[in-house]
Amino acid sequence: MEKINTLSISVLMAIFILSACNSSDKKTTGTDNTKEKNNGWELLFDGTTTTGWHTYGKDSIGKAWKAEDSTLHLDASKEGWQTKDGGDIVTDNEYENFDLKLEWKISEGENSGIMFYVHEDTSKYKYAWESGPEIQVCDNEKNEDGKIDKARAGDLYDLVASSSQQFVKPAGQWNQVEIIADKGKLNLYMNSQHVLSTTLWDDTWKKLIAATKFKTMPGFGTFKKGKIALQDHGADVWFRNIKIKKL
């Protein structure tokens, strides 16, 4: 009888310890998120769903965008130059002055992009990149854009070259990006290194636009508030740890 009681007590203690560990894990995860929120960060990706995002110009998000393994993954299957049931995706909310942090990983030989100040008006802009400037995401080694000035990973696409090339990790590896846009001042960090700084909306900015294909797109680069967008360029691309702080 004593042996049975001793065994029962041992089992109960094991269950108690396991439950305590599980509770501790949940508490730690919750505390981490709470701390970020208390510090002013808004999580744009919860790691498990596509909540907070939709395909540009639509009410929902395409099925090619999947939340899996704590990443937001575009599972590409080309239909033209974009993905079947994909498309660029944008945040539900707009942002003015902000600090945006995220990580990206691109498939071999491909490219994508991160856009900001996107004005979602399909009657004027068919694509997100027709209104919002883009930070290039690219496999510099095997994608043709990786050999073009102002079109490499970390460049402000077609507008301003960055010094990011020595800090960019190759296809299949994660790159950390931080984009700070505050009252017209734009700063970009790649893997914790400051690689680009420019001023938006002044005369120099207008001249930069006038020397690119964007000059034919009225309103491009003029919006001081807009949505964050992730580009579908017909390639597998992954994003994670996406968060933003209003400044």
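The record above closes out task 2.4. Task 2.5 opens with a second protein, given below.
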Amino acid sequence: MSVFTYTTIQQPTEGIYKEKGSKFLGFAYPVNSEAEVKQKIEQLKKEYFDARHHCFAWMLGPERKHFRAFDDGEPNHSAGDPILGQIRSKGVTNILVVVVRYFGGVKLGVGGLIGAYKAAAEDALAKATIIEKDVTEEVIVSFDYLLTADVMRTIKELDLKIIEQKFDEGCSIKLNVPSKQKENLLSRLSLMKAMGKAIKWTYSENNNL
């Protein structure tokens, strides 16, 4: 079954939880790739370089099947999994949640750690605005200049977003196409091609979530 939309957070948020002198700082970010995840984590490590742990969990993809949890030196499953659990409970994806811990000198035990990391992640996510976004795909349409009016009419009627465009003897337009509109677009382009018009399309490798 195709997934046409997904939910994520609108903007970065922060949360905090304190327990027996330890301070847990929660950070939630909307992200679109593992490269972006890595960049955000490295930024936090530089900013909070004196913290004991930088634990995190992330999830990517509209089907929410691509994820990771990391304990960063805490006992196994005591940090990353509770953070991931909060992401799952919110039903969001394309998200990174990091909890930075400053050790307060008193050990919390595995149960205490699970509760603390969960609480810090929960606080950050509670402050986030949850939004619904379309699953999209980039489609590049190439056509003869004489077909410009037909192509532009199709784009307007389907309310598609133009990312790039080039108009000369060989024209091309890169479109951001919601998955729910993809079949409509391809049907119209196929009809033009069946009528003998010079038009073709390809899919960009840079598809979006």
